[in-house]
C-alpha cells in the first residue's frame, strides 16, 4: 500500500511523469496456440498494433503511415485514414498528423451550421456591424 502514495508523490516532483502515464492501458487477447487469455499492452496514439503480444513477447506497435492517424491508445490492425476533407468555403485549420485527423474551419466571412459554412449576411443600407460573427 505504500507504493501508490510514493508514486503519487514522485509524480508531483518529476516533471512530465504521472502514475497514469507510466502504465499503458491493456486489453485481453486469447493466444491461438495456447488458448490462454493474455493481458496485452495497447499501442500509443500515432501507432497501430503490428503483432499481438505472446506469452514471451510484448505487443508490437508500428508508426502510422503518411496520411493516417490514431488519436487514442489502441489495438487496431492499421491506422485510420485522414478522411476529413475541407470543402467549399472551408480551409484547413490543422493538417492531418499521426495523432489527429485534419480539422477544417470556415473561411473568413462564413460561419458553420450543421457541418456547412454559410456566408454571413450583409447589413442593409444605413446599418452596420454590431458584433462580428464567428
TrEMBL record:
Q: Where is the signal peptide?
A: 1-19
Subcellular location(s): the record lists: Secreted
Matching entries from InterPro entries are given as: TNFR/NGFR_Cys_rich_reg, TNFRSF_decoy_receptor
- Gene3D superfamilies from the entry? Tumor Necrosis Factor Receptor, subunit A, domain 2
Question: In what residue span(s) does the TNFR-Cys domain sit?
Answer: 63-104
Q: Which domain of life is it from?
A: Eukaryota
Q: Name one GO biological process term.
A: apoptotic process
Q: Which keywords are on file for this protein?
A: Apoptosis, Disulfide bond, Glycoprotein, Repeat, Secreted, Signal
Name it. Answer: TNFR-Cys domain-containing protein
- Single GO cellular component term: extracellular region
Instruction: Give the intrachain disulfide bonds.
Output: 64-79, 86-104
Its predominant location is secreted
- The UniProt entry annotates TNFR-Cys repeats at 63-104
**Which intervals of the chain form a coiled coil?**
none
Amino acid at each position: 500500500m505504500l507504493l501508490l502514495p510514493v508514486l503519487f508523490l514522485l509524480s508531483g516532483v518529476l516533471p512530465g511523469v504521472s502514475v497514469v502515464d507510466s502504465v499503458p492501458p491493456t486489453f485481453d487477447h486469447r493466444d491461438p496456440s495456447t488458448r490462454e487469455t493474455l493481458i496485452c499492452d495497447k499501442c500509443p496514439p500515432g501507432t497501430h498494433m503490428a503483432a499481438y503480444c505472446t506469452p514471451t513477447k510484448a505487443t508490437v506497435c508500428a508508426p502510422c503511415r503518411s496520411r493516417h492517424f490514431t488519436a487514442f491508445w489502441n489495438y487496431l490492425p492499421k491506422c485510420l485514414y485522414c478522411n476529413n476533407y475541407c470543402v467549399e468555403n472551408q480551409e484547413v485549420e490543422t493538417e492531418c498528423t499521426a495523432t489527429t485527423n485534419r480539422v477544417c474551419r470556415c473561411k473568413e466571412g462564413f460561419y458553420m451550421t450543421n457541418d456547412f459554412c454559410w456566408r454571413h449576411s450583409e447589413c442593409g443600407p444605413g446599418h452596420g456591424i454590431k458584433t462580428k460573427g464567428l
